[in-house]
Design brief:
Largest sheet of chain A: 6 strands, antiparallel
Helix content of chain B: 25-40%
Structural class of chain A: alpha+beta
Structural class of chain B: alpha+beta
Largest sheet of chain B: 7 strands, antiparallel
Oligomer: heterodimer
Radius of gyration of chain B: 26 Å
Shape of chain B: elongated
Strand content of chain A: 15-25%
Number of helices of chain A: 7
Number of strands of chain B: 24
Order of helices and strands of chain A: EEEEEEEEEEEHHHHHHH
Number of helices of chain B: 9
Strand order of the largest sheet of chain B: 15-16-19-23-22-21-20
Helix content of chain A: 40-55%
Strand order of the largest sheet of chain A: 2-1-11-10-7-8
Largest interface: A-B, 52 and 71 residues
Strand content of chain B: 35-45%
Shape of chain A: elongated
Chain lengths: 330, 471
């Protein structure tokens, strides 16, 4: 079997820039900025003649640095200037350019099942379902308020929901177009609308369950779930629209979720945190609803109220620490 | 150039004066409208005015003119007699030369003690290291004042200066009869010594503490000034006014002064630390509050509305009214019962304590879907916004639960917060929402301001105990 090596140049965002195939033992591949090289890199950190890759008899590759100041790295390890290195496959860094080297020795895994196939196959249906769920939630909120003109406010809520989804999806479609050349509108609509609908309806259901179970922590769990869904949606958007690998996409999505969450927190809660007039009434009441937890006895509840004296005292201490009283002798 | 500067300086002076006149008046407690004695409204008066014929009007005008001349002579005599006994009391922040607040006071007893309102000197009592008090006597004499004794309950204080001895005014401990002519002296709005004429209208009927209703002008800055009778004796101390109404003023009866004078031995603000002074104020509030909010002698009164028994008289001095409240939604009907103590105690500028207010609202759905009705109930339970400044109170600590009350289940949320300045004073905010019925709901709220924790809890127990569903 003839020796062969495949060299791929990977762009800064993980996408393929060029691919070159070399066959036959003894074949050499010179990498550098010089136009005479087999692989010409446009990288000011690379030398004109930077590295020499030689395909050996046994199918492996000898990597030699041609005496550069920045050196050549294979899988993060610097190639010794005199000896060179012999590798089967790996990431070669020349200057700041990344090359991926593969030979016949590189193990090839079995075929991976295409998991997102379902989304792609039913993207029209899924997108329509997601958008409908979002519009339905907007309409439902309006209906709860029992406005005087139901049609107009439901229509308004629907249009606002549509507009927001269009804006968000448009952004991702544009990124997708720039990276892949295709808009992938329906896929992004699906991710955005189903994510939003899950968050919205899930939060509402969490409120219902929180009242039934009398567990206000559940609302907080609801907020966490909303955050997780947002993270998942951002991750999927990134994977669909860019070339980023799993780890980078996850890290970016996580960072974005944290930033968005922090902004929401500052707007919604952070502002009110030190508010002396904020009362926490617990989960919203559901009239005549089934409840999982039995009612408390009045005496038990009053005993709990006693603890409020201590909590209030702690709040006072905290408040005095934040803003001391005007007189020094306290 | 110089002219421009002069104009700017003049303009600034004018601005400063306006600001002083508007903003630096001492707090004149704004009484709750419920307390305002209801007089005839302008519409009701109109027909009477039309019935008087032209000739009568002329005659009346002439008579009034003569009468007013006579009265002015009267007033001049009163003012001249009292002029030297009345001082303006000014509070200064730190080392500032311009006053932060001002009020009036008058000499009594041996002429070395000056009586004024507690609220005039409250800032200096609560922040003794930050504020200093000075007097401005006739002939422009000034000097440093010390607080000797305070009576938060009757809004009185005794102050003195080392070098000041004034002719004392005589006290009259009997309450003037209704219709007796009366005069009030003070320094309204920093405009200089002023006397106003009016009529004493006896004791205010629904007030917890004794207050004499004076129908005459009292304005900010006159607080602490003497209220005189026909013989020039002090029958009381100007204390407050109903703003936005006409000439409804209140006067603290002079009979509370001797007891306070007996306590006025040494300067409090020198002898006690700021903390001790605050404790003293707190102790007076707590003594008052324990009395006002104690359980009524007989069992708590209730009012029945739509199957609910709603507590009304849960404390001795509560007054209730049933009102037609504006509904939050056209398809929700609201019946409301509101109760409150008629007066509260002013303990610091803008801080009223020892107050109770209660509001029961029964909401009925008029064809709303249960989910929609639920939304309205939750919305109503969350509002109205609580009041309180972060300078005076710490944030609330809350506890909510579903509790079985007498005949119905309810969500009870209790929130408690402490006062920053006064250890031992708490605000309570209890919200009860009936959760059994999907087409009718009770939203009830009990709010207590500036009470001891124990009093608050006892009041809350009485309130929750009296709520009942018995169709």
């Amino acid at each position: 079997m003839e020796a062969v090596m495949l060299i791929e140049q990977i762009g800064p965002h993980g996408h393929l820039v060029l691919r070159q195939r070399f066959e036959g033992a003894g074949t050499e591949c010179r990498v550098g900025r010089d136009l005479g090289c087999d692989i010409v890199v446009d990288d000011e950190h690379a030398a004109p003649q930077h590295a020499l890759l030689t395909l050996l008899e046994d199918g492996r590759v000898s990597v030699r640095d041609l005496g550069t100041r920045n050196g050549t790295r294979v899988d993060g390890m610097r190639v010794p200037a005199d000896a060179g290195a012999i590798v089967e496959h790996g990431d070669i860094v020349v200057g700041r350019t990344r090359l991926r080297l593969r030979t016949r020795h590189t193990p090839i895994g079995t075929e991976r099942v295409f998991r997102r196939d379902f989304v792609r196959r039913h993207r029209t249906l899924l997108a329509a379902a997601g958008v409908s769920a979002c519009i339905a939630y907007g309409g439902f909120l309006q209906w709860l308020d029992a406005p005087s003109s139901m049609l107009r406010s439901v229509l308004k809520a629907g249009l606002v929901a549509l507009g927001l989804i269009a804006l968000w999806t448009g952004l991702w479609a544009l990124i997708s177009k720039l990276n892949h050349g295709s808009w992938e509108v329906r896929v992004h609509v699906t991710i955005a609308s189903i994510g939003t609908a899950l968050c919205a309806w899930g939060y509402w259901v969490a409120g219902l369950v929180a009242f039934a179970a009398q567990w206000s922590v559940l609302v907080r769990i609801g907020v966490t779930v909303v955050g997780a869904v947002a993270l998942a949606a951002l991750y999927l958007h990134l994977r669909e629209a860019t070339h980023y690998g799993r780890r980078i996409a996850l890290a970016l999505a996580g960072a974005a979720t944290l930033v968005i969450g922090a902004i929401a927190w500052i707007i919604a809660i952070g502002v009110e945190e030190g508010d002396v007039n904020r009362v926490n009434l617990g989960p919203e009441v559901r009239l005549g609803a089934e409840r999982v937890v039995p009612n408390r006895d009045i005496a038990d509840y009053l005993a709990e109220v006693d603890e409020l004296q201590r909590t209030a005292s702690r709040e006072r201490q905290k408040s005095l620490l934040n803003a001391p009283l005007a007189n020094a002798d306290d | 150039m110089k002219i421009t500067r002069l104009v700017v300086a003049l303009w600034l002076c004018g601005f400063a004066t306006v600001v002083v006149a508007q903003a630096e008046d001492p707090p004149v407690p704004d009484k709750v409208p419920a307390e305002v004695p209801t007089g005839p409204s302008p519409e009701e008066q109109a027909p009477d005015a039309e019935a008087v014929d032209a000739a009568a009007v002329d005659a009346a005008a002439v008579e009034a003119d003569i009468a007013s001349q006579e009265l002015s002579g009267d007033a001049k005599v009163r003012l001249d007699a009292a002029r030297d006994a009345v001082v303006q009391i000014r509070g200064y922040f730190d080392k500032s030369e311009s006053s932060a607040f001002h009020g009036s006071g008058f000499a009594v007893d041996d002429g070395r003690r000056i009586v004024t309102n507690y609220h005039v000197v409250a800032q200096a009592v609560l922040y003794p290291r930050q504020y200093r008090l000075e007097y401005l006597a006739s002939e422009g004499r000034t000097g440093l004042l010390h607080v000797l004794a305070i009576d938060v309950r009757n809004d009185l204080a005794v102050v003195a200066a080392d070098d000041l001895e004034l002719p004392a005014l005589k006290l009259r401990s009997e309450i003037p009869a209704q219709g007796e002519r009366a005069w009030s002296i003070g320094f309204p709005l920093n405009l200089g010594l002023t006397i106003t004429e009016g009529v004493a209208n006896g004791l205010v009927e629904n007030s917890i503490e004794q207050r004499i209703h004076y129908t005459g002008a009292i304005n900010g800055g006159m607080s602490g000034g003497p209220a005189l009778d026909r013989r020039g004796r002090v029958y009381g101390v100007n204390v407050s006014v109903v703003t936005g109404r006409q000439l409804v003023g209140f006067v603290v009866p002079a009979k509370h002064i001797p007891a306070l004078l007996a306590r006025a031995k040494q300067p409090l603000d020198v002898a006690l630390s700021a903390q001790q002074l605050r404790q003293r104020v707190t102790a007076q509030v707590l003594a008052y509050e324990a009395e006002v909010l104690e359980a009524p002698p007989d069992t708590a009164g209730t009012q029945r509305v739509r199957g609910y028994a709603l507590p009304t008289q849960i404390s001795r001095h509560v007054e209730c009214s049933t009102i037609d409240e504006r509904s939050p939604h056209v398809r929700v009907r609201v019946e409301a019962v509101r109760c409150r103590t008629p007066t509260r105690l002013l303990v610091q500028s803008g801080v009223y304590v020892a107050g109770l207010s209660m509001q029961h609202r029964i909401l009925q759905s008029v064809g709303l879907h249960p989910l929609q009705f639920e939304r309205q109930v939750n919305r109503l339970a969350a509002g109205p916004r609580r009041t309180g400044a972060s300078a005076h109170v710490a944030p609330f600590a809350c506890r909510d639960a579903l509790v079985s009350l007498d005949g119905f289940d309810a969500r009870i949320s209790t929130c408690v917060r402490q006062y920053r300045l006064f250890t031992g004073l708490y605000d309570f905010d209890v919200t009860v929402v009936g959760i059994d019925d999907a087409s009718q709901a009770l939203v009830s709220r009990l709010a207590l301001q500036g009470v001891a924790f124990e009093t608050g809890k006892r009041t809350m127990e009485r309130y929750l105990g009296a709520l009942q569903w018995k169709p």
